[in-house]
Each structure stands twice: as C-alpha cells, then as structure tokens.
Design goal:
Order of helices and strands: HHHHHHH
Distance between the termini: 45 Å
Number of helices: 7
Radius of gyration: 21 Å
Helix content: 55-70%
Structural class: mainly alpha
C-alpha cells in the first residue's frame, strides 16, 4: 500500500490534500479504528460500486483511519456478493411484507420487471445490513482496542510488581 505522502501527491487527490492532513486519518488510535470499521462496513453494504471512494469521503469528516476504512469495504467482494444481495432481498421482503406474487413464472421471463420488483426490498435490506454492520464494526473495533489496552496494562503492571 502506498504511504500517506504518495497518496497526497496523487494528481487526483492533490486538490483535496489539505483535507487529508489530520493525523487520525492515517494513524491507528482508539478513536480512529472503530470509526474506520464503521465507515468502511457501512460503505461496503450501502453501495455496490465506489465503496472505496465513499469510505474515504466519509472517513475524512469523521476523523476515521482512511486506509482501514477502505480495507473494511472488502467484506463485499465477488465471492460474497450473491449471498449478501440474496440475504438483503429476503430481509427487505420480510420487512416490507413483500411477496413476488403468483405470476413468478411470467415475471421470470421479463428480467426487467423482476429486477424492478426486487429493487425496493433489496435496497431496504442493504440499508439495514449497512447500519447493522457499521454498529457491529464500531463495537468490535472499540472492544478490540480496549482488550489491547487492558492486556498491555496488565502485562506492564505484572512486570512492575514482579521486579520488586
């Protein structure tokens, strides 16, 4: 992965480089990690394309770690795309009390009509997935950071008391 300076020198980023100067955008700390996971997971489920860009744009005002936010979008990939969208459709259909209807065979012949019929439930399901994944990512990031801190604190405390 490119370092911070190489990214900021990119001709596409250079006009906005002043926005990417905050240290939290590039360093891992107790605030930037949970935020980055939340932003990245939200972007992963909210958009089928342009997830890296959305994650980076959302990370800046939220002071989340930009590389980690972009990396978190990789949970949606060609291997996970089908199960995620099928699950989103099923969840959205359940929440909207939507059923495909009795003319499924006729609708299956007209792919456009089927896609239009499925788009509302799928969009709602993806929104629910995005919000749930963002919340789970934030909590997991905060818990991991706390676990890491407590582990360090205990080991330094044990070494300090063992040396006396």
């Amino acid at each position: 992965m490119k370092d911070r300076d190489a990214i900021l020198r990119s001709r596409w980023i250079r006009p906005f480089a002043h926005l990417f100067g905050h240290p939290s955008l590039w360093h891992l700390n107790r605030r930037s990690v949970p935020r980055a996971l939340a932003v990245g997971l939200f972007a992963a489920f909210a958009l089928p394309l342009g997830q890296f860009l959305l994650a980076a744009l959302l990370a800046v005002p939220l002071r989340a770690n930009v590389p980690l936010a972009a990396a978190a979008t990789l949970v949606t990939n060609p291997l996970t795309f089908s199960p995620i969208y099928f699950g989103a459709y099923k969840l959205g259909s359940f929440l909207l009390h939507h059923s495909p209807g009795e003319d499924v065979d006729e609708m299956a012949q007209h792919l456009g009509a089927m896609l239009i019929s499925a788009s509302g439930p799928t969009a709602l399901g993806l929104l629910v997935f995005a919000l749930a994944a963002a919340a789970a990512g934030f909590c997991a990031g905060a818990a991991w950071w706390r676990y890491r801190l407590v582990k360090r604190w205990r080991s330094s405390r044990a070494s300090a008391s063992g040396g006396q």
